[in-house]
Design goal:
It is a single chain. This protein has 169 residues and is an alpha+beta fold. It is built from four helices and nine strands. It has a single domain, classed as 3-Layer(aba) Sandwich (Protein Transport Mog1p, Chain A), CATH 3.40.1000. The protein has a seven-stranded antiparallel β-sheet, with helices on both faces. Strands 1-2 form a two-stranded antiparallel ribbon. The longest helix has 15 residues. The chain is globular and about 40 Å long.
Length: 169
């Protein structure tokens, strides 16, 4: 076996060991970093994970609301970005094609207006220096909504992992 082939096999095995499968559907399995801690999903969640780096913690959730989803892409992105205070908020968007169709990503930073209790109660806690990366991801039976929120530095370090999850074939 050539040295180059052996190095390629080792690299593939190492990268597989660095991830864990997150099954959202039988035909939609994402590869999340192995360091992300799987949690029992809360209500209306297909998956839930915690990312810890020292004292900083971020939360990743995946929602599924059936074949018709929860509104169009723009409505969801507007709602997500609206969870950060207008003053000081910055956002960037990206989109691309994946296994199941066109995905849409928004990254926003600023003061996160974290819901306290049920969202219909309208109570929020301002969390400055936060970030959110949210994705509308086509699934085999309707869209999935992925969202990572937490301290800005921690969340932004996860951007490559989120992109790897949604672009993998």
């Amino acid at each position: 076996m050539s040295r180059l082939l052996l190095l390629a096999i080792v690299a593939i095995a190492a990268s597989a060991a660095d991830t864990q499968p997150i099954a959202l559907h039988a035909k939609l399995v994402l590869q999340a970093p192995a360091t992300w801690q799987v949690q029992t999903p809360g209500p209306m969640r297909a998956a839930q994970m915690k990312i810890v780096d020292g004292a900083a913690e971020a939360e990743f959730v995946a929602h599924y609301f059936g074949p018709n989803g929860a509104g169009d892409v723009e409505a969801n992105i507007t709602r997500w970005v609206g969870q950060l205070a207008v003053e000081g908020r910055e956002q960037v968007r990206a989109e691309g094609a994946g296994t199941h169709g066109r995905w849409h990503l928004v990254q926003a930073t600023g003061t996160y207006r974290k819901a306290i209790g049920p969202p219909v109660a309208g109570q929020v806690q301002d969390v400055p220096n936060s970030a959110m990366i949210a994705v509308v991801l086509p699934g085999p039976e309707g869209p999935y909504y992925l969202k990572l929120t937490g301290p800005k530095d921690l969340v932004l370090k996860q951007r490559a992992a989120i992109e790897a999850m949604i672009t993998a074939k």
